[in-house]
Amino acid sequence: MGKRIVSGIKPTGTLTLGNYIGAIKQFVKLQKNRKEDEFFLFVADMHAITTRQVPAELRKRTLDIAAMYLACGLEKERTVLFIQSEIKEHVELGYILQSNTYMGELERMTQYKDKSIKQDTSITSSLFTYPALMAADILLYDADYVPVGEDQKQHLELTRDIANRFNNFYGDFFTVPEPLIPEVGARIMDLQEPNKKMSKSDEFDKGYISLFDDEAAIKRKIRSAVTDSLAKINYDPINQPGLANLITIFASIKDLEIAQIVEKYQNSTYQTFKEDLAQALVDTLIPIQKRYQELIKSQELQDILDQGKAIAGEYAFKKMRKCKQKIGLGRK
User: Fold this and answer.
1) Is 256 within a domain?
2) Is there a single domain that holds both residue 271 and residue 320?
3) Engineered SS bond to 142: which of 175, 212, 287, 290, CB 3.0-4.6 Å?
C-alpha cells in the first residue's frame, strides 16, 4: 500500500542553481525512488505574504515554480500539483490549529525568534502564527511523510505535537506525519562569497546562477567564480572554499562522487575545470529552460493545476467538514 508524501514550496525570489540541486532535483529523485507512493506538491503562496509582496510578481513566481518543477522531470501522473491559496480549507484549518497551539511554542520558532531578537517592529502577526498554517498544509491531506531538510525539522515537530494534542482531546483524527529525510541535496554556496549560501535574494547576480540564466550568463558567472591561488584541484572546504563549492556543483549536476571529479581534474588547470563545469551546467539547464518555456504559457500547465485543485480541493473539503463536526462547529 503506497504512502502519501506532502510538500510545499514558497514562491519568493528567483529560482537558483542552489534551489535546483538542494530541493527540486532531490524531489524528482525521491519520486523516482518511491514508485508506490503518491505526491501532493503545492506552491505555498499564502506563506509568501507574511512579508509584503508585489502582486504581479508573486503571481508570476507561483506559476514559474509549478512550471519549473514539471520541466525538471516531476511526474505529472503521480503528482497532485496545486496552488495553496486556491484551497480555502488551508486557512480554515490553520485557524483551528492556532486554537490548539500555544504562544510559547510559536515564540520558539526560529524564524520568528531571529526577527524578534533584532527587535524588528514590522513583524506581522502572520509571521508569528504561520507554523499553524504550515501544520494545516500537512494535516489536511493526511500526509504519511513530509520531506524535510535541517531547517524544517522544527516545524514538522510542532506539526506532530499539534496533531497529537488534537487527537488526544477529540479522538484520533489526524495522521501524525513522519519526517522523510531525502538524500542530502548539496548545500550550494555563493560563487563570489563561498562562505555564505547561494541566495536568490542576493543583490549581486554574479554570486548565483538563476535557473533562467542564458548560456552566456552561466559561462560568465562560472568563469568569474572565486577560487584561490593554489592552482591545485583538491576538495578542501576550509582552505579552498570557492573551489570546493564548484566541485560540489559539478558532482551534483553529473550525479558523481566528489572524489570522482577530483580524480578526473587533478592534473587540470582551473580554467579547464571551469570551462567543463560551465558546459555541464549549460547541458543540464538549457533543456530544462526549453521545457519551461513550452509550459509556462500553455494550457497544459493550467490543466495540470486545475486537476490538482480539483483533487486536493475535494479531499480538503471532506476532511474539513469532518473536522468541524468533530470539534462542534456549525449547527449539526
Assistant:
1) yes
2) no
3) 175
Residue 68 and residue 113 share a domain = yes
Rounded distance between C-alpha atoms, residue 310 and residue 312, angstroms:
6
Cα distance between residue 37 and residue 100, in whole Å: 30
CATH code of the domain covering residue 102: 3.40.50.620
Active site residue 35: no
Answer yes or no: 197 catalytic: yes
Answer yes or no: is pLDDT of 150 > 70: no
Count of structural domains, the chain: 2
Q: What pTM did the predictor assign?
A: 0.89
Q: What is the pLDDT of residue 184?
A: 57
Catalytic one of 3, 10, 200, 264: 200
**What residues pair up with 38 in beta bridges, in sequence order?**
4
* Set 10, 29, 76, 197: catalytic member: 197
* Catalytic residue, candidates 115, 206, 324, 326: 115
Tell me which residue range forms the domain holding 131: 4-186+298-327
| 113 is an active site residue | no
